[in-house]
Amino acid sequence: MSLQFVVDGLLTGSMIGLGAIGVTLTYSILRFSNFAHGDFMAWGTYATLTVVGAIAAMFGKVAPIAPLSFGWPLIVALVVGVAFTALLALLLDEVLFSRLRKQEQAIIAVMGSFGASMALRSLLEFIFTSRPTYFSRAIQIAMPVGFGIRITPDQIALLILTAALVLGVHLLTTRTRTGRSMQAMSQNPALARIAGIDVASVVRVTWVIGAALACFAGVMIGVLVQIRPLMGFDMLLPMFAAAILGGIGSIPGAVLGGLIIGLAEAGAVQLIGAEWRAAVSFIILMVVLIVRPIGLFGVRER
Q1: Phi and psi of 146, rounded to 5°?
Q2: H-type helices in the chain, by residue range?
């Protein structure tokens, strides 16, 4: 049996894991499930695509960085896309979520995020239509690495990028003052306020990190697959499943959960059929909620 599904699973799991970090941070620090998180992914990807198009209009066709399928325009555009997505998240929090959190009822914020998700998705589809698009239509030749596995330079680059991002976020949340403040807010918001932690600053950092990683994950999908307004919505259940599987509040857990789900989905396609792919996240989510609701690295609340 070919082990190609392992590479496919790791790539899918990387995208899910990056998105799940934002989901787990939002839930553990802001205390609500943000259903608009997938739409941050889509908006960030389209913002990046727009900047790539603008650069192409100004400078003409730019040769890719060998052996990759993209060049410096995508790298520059990604920086702009990340900034745009972070600003979008901050704006949405200022206009909507901050007001709903004052109600101190999580279900109100959850329903507000659901409505925001529908609005963002519909607006995106209105602006760009539902037709799929791509960063590049160049076809890369996959290199054999043994055991029936083939991988492209783009895939290698994006796996390395994912590892660097996860390491960076882990160091930020464990080795910096801001990260310790985020952990304090996650464990006990009331005590964190009494201790003098700048709650507003922690909230802003949480939104920026989650939105930035969502944009990175969306661009990964765009480079490897395609770009659609529904791309973030399709990733929503796997991201929530990964966050719950890893344990709410755990960044390594969210990434590991994403990798497990990605590998499970790829394995299901290989062994059963592609029609079961969408069901895998739901099945894993149900099993985790029944067997170990706190997830792999979760801590029971007292």
Answers
A1: 105, 160
A2: 4-25, 37-59, 72-92, 98-101, 106-128, 153-175, 177-187, 189-194, 199-224, 231-246, 251-271, 277-291
For 300, the 3-state DSSP assignment is coil
Contacts (Cβ under 8 Å, ≥6 apart) of 116: 35, 36, 39, 92, 96
How far, in Å, CA of 225 to CA of 139, rounded? 12
Peptide bond into 67 cis (omega under 30): yes
Torsion-angle region of 97 (φ positive above 0: left; ψ -120 to 50: alpha; else: beta): alpha
Tell me the pLDDT tens digit for each residue of 107-164.
898 999 999 999 999 999 999 999 999 998 877 788 887 777 889 999 999 999 999 9
Looking at residue 29, the DSSP 8-state letter turns out to be I
Q: Buried b vs exposed e over 26-37: b needs ≥16 C-beta within 10 Å?
A: bbbbbebbbbbb
pTM of the model: 0.92
151 strand-pairing partners: 143
Q: Which two tokens stand for residue 133?
A: 């698009």
Compute the distance between CA of residue 86 and CA of residue 210 in angstroms, rounded to an integer: 8
Render pLDDT for 252-288 as a digit per residue (tens, 0 to 9). 899 999 999 999 988 888 888 777 777 888 888 888 8
Separation of alpha carbons 35 and 19, rounded Å = 12
